[in-house]
Amino acid sequence: MVKCLLSQPAHCLSLALLDATATRGDIEFLPAASTLDAAAIAVVAPDAILVPPLSDPARCEPAAVYAHADHVEALLEASRALGIPLVWCVSDTLFEEGAEGAIDERVMPRPRDETMRRLVGVGEQLRRHPQHIVLRLGPLFGLEGEDAWLADLIDSLMRGETLRAPQDLVLCPTSVKAVARGLIGMLMQLDSGAGVWGTYHLSGTEPVSAYTFVSVVRTQLATHLEGVGQQVALGALQALNQHHDVPLRRVLDCRRILDVFGIHQKSWRLELGLMLDAWCERYDTGGTDDSPDAGDDDNPGSNEEAADT
Fold it and tell me: Where is this region: Disordered (predicted)?
């Protein structure tokens, strides 16, 4: 059995990985303790260490970004010493200025923000580790766990709050469940001796504006609620224009992960529909938390695409 030590076990990606492997007998994700060092890792003797992404460095407090970078560096040092592969997931927001076309793996992020440059520096160090994976991800959405963007959007809409999102920021929303499935496939192949280390991209299909994504969430949520006999006055949407001349495009080219691992991008619309089905089923049975602080304005996509209230 493949054993993978899971940093940040409360993260939405960590929860998706644990859920996806709950009934499998060939791979296991072990939630790590809050403090990890080489001695603690050696006791577990994992086949790999996985670090979920810091969802939106541009919106985080600088101290949180630096703490995340320090954490990854410490894990990198330990993994090198022990000869253990390290998998680091990274938000696409490091591509601060976007690109006209799809961004492939050879392109290095060059953010202006000093805190984000700190993360780029960590990535350069990690690439010198002979057994590493840097997995750049589109903005993750999920229903539970830290940085679960969709959960925050739903909570705000259900409270009737007005959401604002830029219509001139183009991105590829990415299901946390699809990423979990992709990561499992990668880890299984690497454990079987694939040896194809390096940088890869994974995001949802169909680039859309941040405003369009939030609008689709609102429309589908209303449809799903009506389907279970619920009439809810959802919050309104407001489109923003933040890139006045040319829309900022942050679209990842995901061909390499398909060519090397056979992992296909998934339709974010389909994944979103499945998640809303699950959410509405819980809502209909009284299983959701609609308390005032159930969600907040901490959208992990980026400071620009956050649904501001």
Answer: 286-309
Average pLDDT for consecutive 10-residue bins of the chain (309 residues)? 94 96 95 83 94 89 94 95 96 93 94 94 94 96 94 95 95 97 97 96 96 97 88 93 85 97 97 93 68 38 39
How would you classify the pairing of strands 2-6 and 248-250? unpaired
User: Which residues lie closer than 8 Å to 293 by C-beta, 6 or more apart?
Assistant: none
Write the CB contacts of 188 (distance below 8 Å, at least 6 apart in sequence).
2, 26, 27
The answer to whether residues 299 and 59 touch, using CB atoms and an 8 Å cutoff, is yes
Give the separation between CA 222 and CA 220, rounded to whole angstroms: 5
CA distances from 226 to 164, 200, 277 (A): 24, 40, 12
